[in-house]
Amino acid sequence: MSYIQEVRNAVAARNAGQPEFMQAVDEVLTTITPIVESSDVYKANAILERITEPDRQIMFRVPWTDDNGNIRVNRGYRVQFNNAIGPYKGGLRLHPSVNLSIIKFLGFEQIFKNSLTGLPIGGGKGGSDFDPKGKSEREIREFCQSFMTELARHIGADVDVPAGDIGVGGREIGYMFGQYKRLKNVYEGVLTGKGLPYGGSLARTEATGYGLVYIIQNMLESIGNGFKGKTVTISGSGNVAIYAAQKATELGGKVVTMSDSNGWVYDKNGIDLQVVKDIKEVKRGRIKEYADQVSGAEYHSDGKVWQVKCDIALPCATQNELDISDAKTLIKNGVTAVGEGANMPSTTDAINAFQAAHVLFMPAKAANAGGVAVSALEMSQNSQRLSWSFEEVDSKLKGIMRDIFNKTASAAKLYATPADYVAGANIAGFLKVAQAMIAQGV
Ligand code: NDP
Ligand code: 2IT
After folding, report:
1. Which pLDDT score, from 0 to 100, does residue 173 have?
2. Ligand 1 within 6 A of 167 CB?
């Protein structure tokens, strides 16, 4: 049995009942085979065994009281996966589906994504099975404070720097930052995605969506193409989806769909983002309201946005939201490019189908790295006690996404198949972390 197969089996045995984590591990192990088999150094240093086992996995009780005075308990997580190239860095997710498997898949992917950014950040992730939907401001605040009361002892500006993810935006980061400061009496860049008056970076809100569109533009330009005149379908209507839609529209694309967990909207005239922002960022409402406000727009509570004919598909909601039958529909309808704004939104079968059909496919680790890259720029600004202009951060983001595209494309060409960006991103991300781990000893 090959070294990779042995490690794979051992990881599966040790992590039974963690399908999302195994899905992420399998994808990486399969695609880095040419590197691992090219030298004994990886086996001799047990790099695969070490990179698949988190440095530590923290699970804790988060008690809070609801507006009726009942005491409620959720489970909090922080998985500190790998700090070979920098402090642990990765978001916090608040969603009822959160469990150890999901946090570990996200933390594992973050190692390679953060490496690809070229910035000094390790991989981590956290969150809770708390459901923010329908909670009052006071309940959100109390939950965030209670969550941070435990998390504070495990993090720090040079140790582990959390940020937002599903269910965590500026409001939640603000409450968590306030609680950290109260407990530690230290003013430091311990979280990113902060508000602008207290150390946040301009362009962090836009960064993941903008970065996604920048790298897809780079990928399309490599075949003499671009967003101009293209029909774009987007899933989700949160932070990533909204700013991907904004930049895709600015570059001349027509975004015709957005969704949330209840349903999706189709607007043949192109989504009016002001309406979406008002529903989602101001009123915290449902995407259904878009069709009530915009004439000609359709709302569907069944099916998915992937049934709409498009040139470019950008899944920006959640893991495994695009499966093999969605991929087949997209291919049949002539999709030319897919970019993953969400983490692991495409199932393994769907990725294989896109690649077999020669659809340009940019995986999450490369495609959505703009968010964490600007988080690392926020850390730099905090350390320097300076803040950069929007234009400065945005232009750095563009450069970083271009660099990620070049690294991913050249690793694919050198070690795998040209335009196999899944292999390219995994290999390029892995090599830097593995070299750092080897240099630092066991
Ligand atoms: P938000 O909470 O802002 O938005 C999430 C969106 O996805 C909402 O429209 C939500 O709908 C939908 N969604 C979430 N879970 C599900 C589900 N189980 N089924 C259907 N729809 C769902 O999160 P973000 O935009 O920040 O994150 C979206 C994705 O992007 C995630 O995969 C995240 O990990 C990834 N990502 C985020 C980054 C960031 O900087 N924020 C950086 C890199 C990746 P509803 O409101 O109904 O739940
Ligand atoms: O998945 C991700 O990269 C994020 N949610 C952003 C992490 C960060 O630290 O900004």
Report:
1. 99
2. yes
CB of 110 within 6 A of ligand 1: the answer is no
- pLDDT computed for residue 343 by the predictor: 98
> Rounded to 5 degrees, what are φ and ψ at 256?
-110, -10
Q: Are 366 and 404 in contact (CB under 8 A)?
A: yes
165 CB within 6 A, ligand 1: yes
CA distance 356 to 347: 14
What stretches in the chain show pLDDT beneath 50?
none
- Residue 87's pLDDT is 98
Domains of the chain, by residue range, sit at 54-189, 205-367
Among protein residues, the one with the nearest Cα to ligand 1's atom 31 is 342
Check: CB of residue 239 under 8 Å from CB of residue 318: no
8 Å CB contact between 313 and 245: no
CATH architecture of 205-367: 3-Layer(aba) Sandwich (3.40)
Does the annotation mark 125 as catalytic? yes
**CA of 163, nearest ligand number:** 2
Helices (H), 222-347: 239-250, 273-277, 288-293, 324-332
Q: Is residue 260 in contact with ligand 1, taking CB distance under 6 Å?
A: yes
- For ligand 1, mutation pick of 125, 128, 240, 401 (most atoms within 8 Å of CB): 240
State whether the Cα torsion 301-304-305-310 is positive or negative.
negative
CATH topology agreement for domains 54-189 and 205-367: yes
Pocket test for ligand 2, best of 172, 205, 375 (most atoms within 8 A of CB): 375
Angle at 435 between CA 434 and CA 437, to 5 degrees: 65
| H or E segment to which residue 210 belongs | helix 204-221
Q: CB within 8 A of 333, min separation 6: which ones?
A: 308, 309, 310
Q: Whose Cα sits closest to atom 4 in ligand 2?
A: 91
Q: Say what the pLDDT of residue 362 is.
A: 99
For 25-44, write each residue's pLDDT tens digit: 999 999 999 999 999 999 99
Q: Which atom of ligand 2 is nearest to the CA of 368?
A: 3
DSSP readout, 416-431?
Answer: S-TT-HHHHHHHHHHH
Residue 95, number of CB atoms within 10 A of its CB: 19
- State pTM to two decimals: 0.98
Q: Which of 104, 125, 230, 247 is catalytic?
A: 125
Could you tell me which CATH number the domain at 54-189 has? 3.40.50.10860
Residue 104 CA to residue 123 CA, distance in Å, equals: 10
CA dist., res. 402 & res. 408, Å (int) = 10
Whole-number pLDDT of residue 398: 98
Both tokens of 234, joined, read 């987007």
Q: What number of residues does the chain have?
A: 442
